[in-house]
Design the sequence.
């Protein structure tokens, strides 16, 4: 599911999705932090640190052992690419290391909104 900002707004206006909940996004981060950190100098864990992830090329965090498909990807992380990736990680980028992602669109909207703020600090 690849949703632009306009599509997200239209879906929310149509009653399909609620506006992003930062509180819910932070709750969802609880699952992510088992494998990721947010600090600028944070350690890479099972997954790479996500500080400053938006606007960054996929597979570009130093000292993290990415899959070949992620390293060679041309993807730049935006709201839209993150949404598509989290919706179905293996469909979006077959062969990457990430688990299944988040099937519920509202969960992705909430997590992405929270992550954009938290990962920028």
Sequence:
């Amino acid at each position: 599911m690849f949703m632009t900002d306009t599509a997200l707004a239209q879906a929310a206006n149509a009653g399909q999705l609620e506006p992003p909940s930062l509180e819910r996004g932070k709750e969802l981060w609880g699952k992510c932090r088992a494998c990721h950190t947010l600090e600028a100098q944070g350690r890479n864990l099972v997954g790479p640190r996500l500080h400053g992830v938006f606007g960054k090329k996929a597979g570009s965090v130093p000292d993290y052992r990415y899959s070949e498909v992620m390293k060679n990807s041309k993807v730049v992380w935006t709201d839209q690419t993150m949404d598509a990736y989290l919706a179905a990680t293996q469909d979006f980028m077959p062969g990457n290391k990430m688990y299944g992602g988040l099937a519920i669109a509202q969960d992705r909207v909430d997590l992405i909104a929270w992550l954009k703020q938290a990962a920028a600090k």
In short: Residues 87 and 102 are 5 Å apart (CA to CA). The chain has a mean pLDDT of 90. Residues 5-118 form a domain with the Cytochrome Bc1 Complex; Chain D, domain 2 fold (CATH 1.10.760.10). The two ends are 28 Å apart (CA to CA).
